[in-house]
Amino acid sequence: MSDKPRSMQGWLLFAPAAVLLVAFTHYPTIATFINSLFTNSSVIRPSRFSGLQSYQDLANDPVFWKVLVNNMWLALGTIPTSIGLAIIMALVVNKAIPGRGLVRMAYFTPTMLPMIAAANIWLFFYTPEIGLLDRALAIFGVDSHNWLGDTSTVLPSIIVMTIWKEAGFFMIFYLAGLQTISPELEEAAKLEGSSRWNYFWRIQFPLLLPTTLFVLINAFLNSFKLVDHLFVLTKGGPDNASNLLLYYIYETAFSFLDTSYASALTVVLLILLAVTALTQFFFVDKRVHYR
Amino acid sequence: MTNNLTQNFKLSASLELIGAYLLAAFWIFPLIYAFWAAFHDTQYAIHFDLFAPLTLDNFREVMSQAPFLRYGLNTFMLVSFILPLQLVVSTLAAYAFARYKFVGSNVAFVLVLVQLMITPEILIVQNYGTLAKLGLVDTIAGIGLPYVASAFCIFLLRQTFKSIPKELEDAAQLEGCGTLGLLWRVYVPLAMPTYLAFSLVSLSHHWNNFLWPLIITNSVETRPLTVGLGIFSAPESGVDWSIVSAATLLSVAPLLIAFLLFQKQFVQSFMQAGIK
Questions:
Q1: CATH 3.90.1150.10 holds for B82-224+249-275
Q2: Which SS3 state, helix, strand or coil, does residue A38 take?
């Protein structure tokens, strides 16, 4: 077979995917950049070039900075704790303990729920006075508190829920990682009289480092994409205390109908994601992509 | 001394076991709680009573207030639209990347991988505009189309196809197999575990997806369960916990039951998809 028809055939096979990817990923990415440089068009006034005006607005927009900081706090609050819990869960489930199947199911089930459903359930926990949390705290004489209505507790409340939702998902990656560790290592450590604690920190944890880096990056990417629960729990409030970048983009585009500004916000999100992904590509797992 | 050590080992092991069970109980508790509330009158959601009478009224109430059956049908149609198309489109593309050195294939592959990072929900503003131009706003196809070409699926299948010995392909070609015949008779059957893994991951992802379906739908005829549930449980008037719990359970039941029945396959699929 000569090369030319073979190359043609390759392109033909790739064509359906290529068309869809260009239409829904590459074209909109580029269009977002361009749109952010133009004003919104309306019936009376067509869109015109405005240069970096949107970005100047962005720099002066306190809500933008607020959601960015919130996103960072969310990532800092959820990722290390979720990873720690995920490792513990994986260590537990990886051993032959009684009721292992049930324990694994308990850890993993929140992952199978839509974020909206999780938010519905947790909304009731956080409701002032009649909510479960307040009634549990009342036993210890703690006063009722409006967890989701108070700017200082709303983000921590969401962080706790997110940890519950995500830890079981990360557990899966650690389970996969643990299965690559030879059981002989544990035997050897036992023979040497090494404690479990020692065995974990000296052997398991270092061997799981690639998994941790992988989970870290993906958890970070996810923390920007996960906003569904805000629709039920807080709508970004009170006073944007729980607002996140993607939710702000949604509000700007579909509630305030400011496409141009929403595009500028999307560009910021795209840059954040790109930087994260490039970090992964160059520092973490080159081998994964070009094996 | 060894005896002491084993005893220590045993003690710490049983303490760990208790911790593990407590964590499991804590983790499943919210769901058990929703389950309890859904089958009891609202007053018992607030004042717990183990012997409170069971009732199905909450489910009846949910069904009379919102068309959850219709939402369920919509979600079912949505995943039935997305998954087969994803598999077909990705199989073709993955085969091209695994076995053809076509002009620009390396650059094209990197451009495919871009979608791993920039998922369609990031580009809601532009994609809404595109679908409006195509006249697909508020259709099942409109919800699904941006997800049909999945970089994740292409990547997984390419890895699998590459691991299949080329000799098999040569042998099949000698027997007179064409390109598509080869794909269908050799590659697809050998990649079945990958197809299963991706299918379960994709199924759960799209069953649970919310933001994009919320934006692109605006009628009962297209709205999937998640969006229906989101609208149902965010009323400005007072919230009835038992009814919200019943609605929540109804929405997650099909996927949750499937998960409980095929727990092993689900966990393994997520694992397999994760490592590749």
A1: no
A2: strand
The per-residue pLDDT for range A102-117, each reduced to its tens digit, is: 898 899 999 889 999 9
CA of A249 to nearest chain B CA: how many angstroms apart?
8
B238 pLDDT tier (thresholds 50, 70, 90): low
Nearest CA distance, B77 vs chain A (angstrom): 18
For residue range B165-207, what is the model confidence (pLDDT) as tens digits?
888 888 888 887 788 888 888 899 999 989 998 998 899 899 9
CB contacts, 8 Å: B25 with chain A: 106
Q: Under a CB-based contact definition with an 8 Å cutoff, are residues A125 and B32 in contact?
A: no
* Burial track A101-126 (b if 16+ CB lie within 10 A, e otherwise): eebbbbbbbbbbbbbbbbbbbbbbbb
Q: Name which of A97, A123, A169 is nearest B20 (Cβ-Cβ).
A: A97
* Overall domain count for chain A: 1
CATH code of residue A281: 1.10.3720.10
Q: Is the dihedral of CA B44, B47, B48, B51 positive or negative?
A: negative
Distance between A109 CA and the closest CA of chain B, angstroms: 7
* C-alpha pair distances (Å), B121 with each of A104, A218, A226, B86, B125: 30, 16, 10, 17, 9
Number of other CB atoms surrounding residue A205 within 10 Å: 12
Residue with tokens 């998640």: B226
Residues 6+ apart with CB under 8 A from B80: none
Q: Map residue B84 onto helix, strand or coil.
A: helix
Task: Tokens for B206, please give them.
Answer: 């799209």
CA dist A226 and A244 (Å) reads 9
Is residue A9 one of the residues assigned to a domain? no
Give the residue from chain A lying closest to B155, CA to CA.
A289
Tell me whether residue A36 is in a domain.
no
Helix (H) or strand (E) holding A271: helix A259-279
User: What is the interface pTM, i.e. ipTM, of the complex?
Assistant: 0.87
- Those of residues 229-258 in A touching chain B at CB distance below 8 A are 231-232, 246, 249-250, 253-254
Range of the domain at A189: 53-289
Q: Please name the residues in contact with B237: beta carbons below 8 A apart, sequence gap of 6 or more.
A: none
Contact B210, A231 (CB under 8 A): yes
Position A109 in a domain: yes
Contact B167, B182 (CB under 8 A): no
CB contact under 8 A, A114 and B96: no
CB–CB contact A112 B252 (8 Å): yes
* pTM of this structure: 0.89
pLDDT tens digits along B239-248: 678 888 888 9
Which of A89, A52, A69 has its CA nearest to residue A169?
A89
The vertex-B203 CA angle with A226 and A277, nearest 5°, equals 40
Q: Within a domain: residue A11?
A: no
Chain A residues with CB under 8 Å of B131 CB are none
| A 57-86: CB under 8 A from B | 85
H-helix or E-strand spanning residue B224: none
